[in-house]
Design a protein that fits this description.
6-stranded mixed sheet; 262 residues; alpha/beta; 15% strand; globular
């Protein structure tokens, strides 16, 4: 059974967690995610949506699978999961996670690897690791701190309190919060909007954010001209500025431009 698959619908790629109802993270999950991300990276998609079949995004790690691994095997497994999560972050396109039901442990970390999270109001995000004597191993602590600050990240990771989609939206973890039945449609619409946007501009913005994350404002400032100046002569910029100039001449608000370049 294929527990994760990649599929493409027009300019939006989908990585689908396809082992409902729990979509547990185990060796087969890690191997399939690696393949799906590889397929996404070699496609011509302009945005990526990570979503799940069944009632839950994922209930996290398969502890039975974990108990069967010795220390070296578990370290390799976690390293491979991290590689796939970081590969999603490294894609040159915007990424969206659609979360309803449970997003526990590593599944929460998978969602945090995406640029945007569209969450169900009653979704449940939870760092569960400390409750079983472990700690988040695939980026939750630092990525939560980046999104919501150190003290809130410490509370999430140490106290293992469940967090609703509504709370995730209020804190800024989730970009958009909708009723559970609307999650996939809302996330797809969001991803389609990104896919119709200026992909190279998005890539530059994502690179600046990574620079800021690694070295603060001075690091991003040092790279800003090298990252952004190539956009000035791009076809996207020419079309966008021309359309805006024409709209200004006519005294109207310019409409959203649909971009086709990479």
């Amino acid at each position: 059974m294929q527990v994760i698959r990649f599929e493409q619908q027009d300019s939006v790629g989908h990585i689908v967690l396809a082992n409902p109802p729990k979509n547990l993270i185990a060796s087969d999950f890690s191997n399939a995610l690696k393949q799906a991300v590889h397929e996404a990276s070699e496609s011509d998609i302009r945005a990526l949506l990570v979503r799940a079949e069944g009632p839950n995004f994922s209930q996290g790690g398969d502890v039975i699978d974990f108990l069967e691994k010795n220390a070296s095997q578990f370290r390799t497994f976690i390293a491979e999961c991290n590689q796939s999560f970081r590969a999603i972050e490294a894609l040159p396109i915007p990424t969206v996670a659609a979360v309803r039901g449970a997003a526990y442990g590593g599944a929460f970390e998978l969602a945090l690897a995406c640029d945007f999270i569209v969450a169900a109001e009653d979704a449940v995000f939870r760092c569960i690791e400390a409750s079983v004597g472990s700690a988040p191993v695939a980026g939750a602590v630092q990525r939560l701190a980046e999104r919501i600050g150190r003290s809130r990240a410490a509370r999430c990771a140490m106290l293992c309190e469940p967090m609703s989609g509504v709370t995730a939206g209020q804190l800024g973890i989730a970009t958009q919060v909708v009723p559970a039945g609307d999650v996939e449609a809302a996330a797809l619409k969001f991803a389609q909007g990104l896919a119709a946007g200026p992909t190279r501009s998005y890539a530059a913005i994502r690179t600046l954010l990574k620079a800021w994350s690694g070295g603060g404002v001075p690091s991003a400032d040092a790279m800003i001209l090298d990252i952004t100046m190539a956009l000035h002569s791009s076809e996207d910029a020419r079309r966008g500025r021309t359309a805006r100039a024409e709209a200004i001449k006519q005294g109207i608000e310019p409409q959203r431009i649909v971009f086709t370049g990479r």
